[in-house]
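hey so i finally got around to running the thing on that chain from the lab meeting. sorry it took forever, my laptop kept dying and i had to restart like 3 times. anyway pasting the input first so we r on the same page abt which one it is
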Amino acid sequence: LLGESGTGKDILAQAIHNESMREHGPFIAINCAAIPRELLVSELIGYGDGAFTGSKRGGNAGKFELAHGGTIFLDEIGEIPLELQAILLRVIEEKAITRIGSKELRPIDVRIIAATNKNLKEEVEKKNFREDLYYRLNVLSIELIPLRERIDDIPHLVNHFIRKIG
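ok and heres what got predicted. didnt touch it at all, straight out
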């Protein structure tokens, strides 16, 4: 999903999930820009028992594991550091994760919806985004146009909100 901030990429991702055969599975959203890079991998793939000092006993499932059977929405995918993109690519290709500090391969079945306000094609050319990951994610692109370029939609939205709130 491509578009400026505020165009409703998260709402569209949730709608895609809700209208799909995965609607009864989980919908897990993660803002890749809001999580410090040191924690992003453990958030996405989880960690095993004793993976690091202070880790939860028994380990912790990551967002991919929690989304099994459903959809994971990776918002601001363009903000994932280059060195972590290889891990994401491996998860997509293998359809499995290995938690940090574990050797156990855990199969996952998830739909991935990614969103960005960056031009990822340009980021690939600048070597800021992996080309192979770009093509894995870019199966179907939907560009959301900002409301300022859809002036004719404003009366419909006003009527909708008047009915909903009124």
